[in-house]
Amino acid sequence: MTRIALTFYSVLRMPVADIIECAQAAEKAGFQYISFAESFYRDGPALAATIASRTTRIQLGTSVLPIYTRTPFQLAMAMATLHEISGGRVGYLGIGIGYRSRTETYFGINIERPLERMRETVEIIRLLLSGKDASHAGKVFRFSGFPKLTPDPLPIPIYFGSSGDRMLTLAGEIADGGILNSIPTPGHIRHARQVLQRGAAKAGRDPGRLTVAASVIYSVSDNLEEAAAAAKEDVLFYLGYPEINPILEQSGLMKAAESVRQASREHGKRLALELIDKPMLDALAVYGDAKRCRARLKELMEAGIDLPIIRVSNALYPEADKKRVFLRAIESLQGF
């Protein structure tokens, strides 16, 4: 089976018991990873630990944990603890800046010097997972004599969640790969891979060792109208964040996206959803019956995604139906 992950994102309004059942179904279906996010509502590492204790083979990752609401110390301690709980099944640590509006509004934390903070965060996480006591003297963080977290080095791959060139370049220089935002298009995937590779070459690293992952809006149903309607909800959600503008610009969708945004601001969600037409939806989401979804996912992988991270569209459905929607998506990718 192709390397593939299923994500449970932090704003998912779904009972933990149902999430556990879906994670177990994904393990049985052959998924390689369960991936966890954190923004608000759900605690990512706590949920990951719960899933780790209820599964046996599937690996665990994050896509992504924010570096402003979690310090590098918290991130390293979480990964070391999850490594122990899971019996060594931590596959990757995805970290990112987070959406500025959420971080600054919900948490009251200003996003400042993001590139510098990201660079130091990676340095510190690797120091803390080196199996040795750690000290660091940087511009953002300064500390000394942090007791070793692990008896032996724990070389967990670190991926940056980003769609912007500067952060992707930095990922190529110091990280193990990147995780693209949830509306990747073939053009943006190819561009991002090139940027990552240039960053690696700049630092004298092997570009071939980098992983390009991407969160993918995934809405499967034999009823095409239902699948499209559910996918539109997620597309509109992401259009609300300017951080995805690089994808829209590289895909020639910026003008259409601005019209959707304006409609949402001035007239509300209903009109905004109507303005997400078929060409935009086809470009930004995987939707339709299982055969169509699998074919579209293969197209994205051929464009350069090494690890698709499946984001199941479920905002359209009541809480009681969300498990069914996840299980349907998992079944559609069995043996993919």
Please provide a written account of the structure.
- By secondary structure, the chain is an alpha/beta fold.
- Helices cover 49% and strands 17% of the residues.
- It contains 14 helices and twelve strands.
- The longest helix has 17 residues.
- It is globular.
Topology readout:
Blueprint (H helix, E strand, L loop, with lengths): L4 E4 L7 H14 L3 E4 L7 H10 L5 E4 L2 E2 L5 H15 L3 E7 L3 H7 L7 H15 L5 E4 L4 E5 L11 E4 L3 H10 L2 E4 L5 H17 L8 E10 L3 H16 L5 H6 L3 H14 L1 H7 L2 H7 L1 E3 L1 H14 L3 E6 L6 H14 L4
Parallel strand pairs: 1-2, 1-12, 2-3, 3-5, 4-5, 5-8, 8-9, 9-10, 10-11, 10-12
Antiparallel strand pairs: 6-7
Helix pairs in contact: 1-14, 2-3, 3-5, 6-7, 7-13, 10-11
Task: Report a brief summary of the structure.
The chain has 336 residues and is an alpha/beta fold. It is built from 14 helices and twelve strands.
Which terms summarize this structure?
336 residues, alpha/beta, TIM Barrel, 8-stranded parallel β-barrel, two-stranded antiparallel ribbon, 14 helices, 12 strands
Domain count = 1
Helical region count?
14
What structural class should be given to the helix and strand makeup?
alpha/beta
In CATH's first tier, which class applies? Answer: Alpha Beta
What is the H level of CATH, i.e. the homologous superfamily? Luciferase-like domain
Order of strands, main sheet, comes to 1-2-3-5-8-9-10-12
State which percent range the strand residues make up: 15-25%
- N-to-C SSE series? EHEHEEHEHHEEEHEHEHHHHHEHEH
**Rg (CA only):** 19 Å
Query: Main β-sheet, in a few words?
Result: 8 strands, parallel, barrel
N- to C-terminal separation?
5 Å
Q: What is the correct CATH architecture?
A: Alpha-Beta Barrel
Shape: globular
The level of helicity is 40-55%
Q: Which residues form runs of ≥5 with pLDDT under 50?
A: none
Mean pLDDT: 95
**How many DSSP E strands?**
12
